[in-house]
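User: Some background: our group keeps a shared notebook of sequences we're curious about, and every so often someone picks one and asks for a predicted structure to add to the entry. Today it's my turn. The entry only has the sequence so far, pasted here. Could you supply the structure so I can complete it?
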Amino acid sequence: MAYYFQLFRKLPNGETENDATSLSQIDREICEEFDLPLHPKLYVNGWFDVIGFGLATGKTWDDIRANTNKQIASTEAFDLECRESDLLTLRIVDFLEARFSPNCWFGRGK
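Assistant: Of course. Here's the predicted structure to add to the notebook entry:
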């Protein structure tokens, strides 16, 4: 089974744009927001693989936060790189939730 998601930009009136925002555009905006370098092929901090997969499989923003917080709590104190990555994931979740609404679905092959 394949899982899919799209993110639609929230408008000031509470509605969302009709067309989904490209994931590469969202990645650029994340990089700008957090003053991070844009990679030509990879999404910053693996947000697509963690946050995107979570959304695609039916998780809410709060579910993703809770899972990330559990991961932070179980991370060894000496593993600062992992902890910093998880903390950035939480910031990216907040950023995305404030600006985008997800649309998620799954499909089955024939």
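Suggested note for the entry: The first helix runs from residue 23 to 33. The longest strand covers residues 2-9.
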